[in-house]
Amino acid sequence: MIKKESINDLVIFGGEQAFREKLYVGCPNIGNRQRLLTRINEALDRRWLTNNGPNVQEFEKKVSEYIGVKHCIAVCNGTMGLEIASKAVALTGEVIVPSFTFVATAHALKWMGITPVFCDIDSDTYMMDPRLIEELITQHTTAIMGVHLWGRPCKIEEISQIADKHNLKVLFDAAHAFGATYKGKNIGNFGNAEVFSFHATKFLNTFEGGAIVTNDDHLALKIRSMKNFGFDSGDNVISLGINGKMNEISAAMGLTMLEDVDELIAGNYRHYTEYGKALAGTKGIELMSYDEPEKYNYQYIVLEMDEEISGVTRDQLVKILNLENVLVRTYFAPGCHNMAPYCTAPSNFKQNLTVTESLAGRVICLPTGSAITKEQINHICEIIRFVIKNGEEIKTRMDELQ
Ligand SMILES: *Cc1c(COP(=O)(O)O)cnc(C)c1O
User: Residue whose CA is closest, atom 5 of ligand 1?
Assistant: First the structure.
């Protein structure tokens, strides 16, 4: 690791890279290799590679036990999970979602022929603002889909109350929130159903994968059939279905990861406190906090910048860090409403999404997870502090470079 003594030591001004190896947001957490490979070998020996194999069955059982939810249906990815869940609760027309989320939330709906109607977030929690939901409800609205952004629960109670009042369905995109709680109860138990993603970059990964969880027996049966071409438990096709199955290798990874969940959370929590300590008092930046005693997986380290105070702009800091091999992300800028195909929608969402627009320009997600060390985190923070300390000068020189 190369220290920065003068601003000329930054790569952007001709210096040497701080890190030889790439440190990046979303670097996969990997569980015990030996146990994973044993499970994969067993699957190969069985020659039962997919179609509700023993690994998938065990994984579903373990996930539902961990969450304390009645039903877990493993699927091939989170996006497919959202689509199947939307289909299973018969969503049509319009669904209210936040714009400040990964584009899959909106895409899953749009792909199903449903129009995502974007709701702004509140400036305290950055979750969909329940005070703005009702004015977005029309005769075409069939549901509200909340997103537990960065693994922090959205305003579940308020959303559910509004939905009840207007007779709407409620789904939660829980892609980030495995292991989190809301008012002491595990995420996965709310709404009509919740959907996790187990993509490689997510807290718990199965390479690609996801799960729909619900406490509704009837809905669970329907989802189980839909993800398997509409088959019932036997040979009869009882509905329109699709192929949303998880395979045995993915489930083997999931089972192996589950055995290390508590350790992974503890590691992420240590990283979060390390970042907190190392960045405390740095002007113009604030680390997003996780409010205890609720539980989280701490997979997202989110920095919020106030460019008026920090000297450099958010995008300049991102550029500097990337050049140093710290591959940070501006999740989830610019907001779905600014992306195709939503940006060309006839209604101008933008004017109603002021908090989303503003936040999208301020955030940076920093690397964490089991691939990064405490020393590396401290060095990343050193660079950030160095850049902010010399903010004015760096900004002037970078502006000149343009
Ligand atoms: C990752 C993600 C998804 C999609 O999950 P995949 O498993 O990648 O399909 C959906 N919503 C959010 C908020 C996500 O971050």
Answer: 78
